[in-house]
């Protein structure tokens, strides 16, 4: 019931029931140092920063698998939106074993979820 009041806080003209139709515009991957990787993604049609952050996470998961690793750890993500185009500049470390840190991802599980949800990867 507490969430019902939050609907009034939505942006003017925003329709929470509107169909989500993202346009994934590409992934740029750069190896920074050893196991530290930078992902830059761009999309249109995102509902919020979480959508574009998820796109970057999907890129990181698949990249880890391609490199023969099973895990990744989120370091940071910067999100920006200009004129309806969302970008994320994210950094992850990739690892063959479960890394330390707060935000860790199992690359196989995340990559499978991304495929199920139609989110492209590298």
Please outline the helices and strands.
Elements: E1 23-33, E2 36-44, H1 49-66, E3 71-82, E4 85-95, E5 104-106, H2 107-116
Helix pairs in contact: 1-2
Q: What does it look like?
A:
With 122 residues, the chain is an alpha+beta fold. It has one domain: Gyrase A, domain 2 (2-Layer Sandwich), CATH 3.30.1360. Helices cover 23% and strands 38% of the residues. It contains 2 helices and 5 strands; from the N terminus they run ββαβββα. α1 crosses α2. It is globular, with a radius of gyration of 16 Å. It starts with 22 loop residues before the first strand and ends in a 6-residue tail after the last helix. The relative contact order is 0.20.
Calculate Rg over CA atoms. 16 Å
The biggest beta sheet is recorded as: 5 strands, antiparallel
Mean of residue pLDDT values:
88
What's the SSE pattern?
EEHEEEH
Helix content: 10-25%
Can you tell me the overall shape?
globular
Count of helical stretches:
2
Helix vs. strand class: alpha+beta
Strand content: 35-45%
What is the CATH C-level name?
Alpha Beta
Largest sheet: spatial strand order: 1-2-4-3-5
CATH topology name, in short, is Gyrase A, domain 2
CATH architecture: 2-Layer Sandwich
Count of folded domains: 1
Low-confidence stretches: 1-13
Distance between the termini: 40 Å
The tally of strands reads 5
